[in-house]
């Protein structure tokens, strides 16, 4: 099972899949916070791999309400982002 399967199941109302996505978002936000306190200079943060590159809704959920930490997701760019093929 991968994130696409979990997202599809959550969108169909599967309670366990919804919980799994909530845990994933909360865990990612935790690590973003930990990283911010461990680095001196903040530039940009990148989402990578399949989940980070292909899941606008997860990027939005992860970055929600983090403006006070200097993180602001551009909603238009996030929605328009597509994975680059090499």
Describe, in plain words, how this protein is organized in 3D.
By secondary structure, the chain is mainly α. It has a single domain, classed as Nucleotidyltransferase, domain 5 (2-Layer Sandwich). Helix content is 62%, strand content 0%. It has 5 helices and no strands. Helix 2 (15-38) crosses helix 4 (56-63). The relative contact order is 0.13.
The secondary-structure class comes to mainly alpha
CATH H level: which superfamily? ATPase, nucleotide binding domain
Number of domains: 1
Helix residue percentage = 55-70%
Secondary structure layout plus pairing:
Blueprint: H1 3-11, H2 15-38, H3 49-54, H4 56-63, H5 75-80
Helix pairs in contact: 1-2, 2-4
Q: Short description, anyone?
A:
By secondary structure, the chain is mostly helical.
Key features?
86 residues, Nucleotidyltransferase, domain 5
């Amino acid at each position: 099972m991968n994130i696409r399967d979990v997202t599809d199941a959550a969108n169909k109302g599967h309670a366990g899949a919804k919980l799994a996505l909530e845990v994933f978002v909360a865990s990612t936000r935790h690590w973003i916070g930990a990283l911010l306190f461990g680095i001196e200079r903040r530039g940009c943060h990148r989402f990578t791999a399949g989940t980070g590159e292909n899941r606008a809704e997860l990027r939005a959920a992860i970055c929600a309400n983090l403006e006070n930490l200097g993180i602001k997701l551009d909603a238009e760019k996030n929605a328009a982002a597509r994975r680059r093929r090499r």
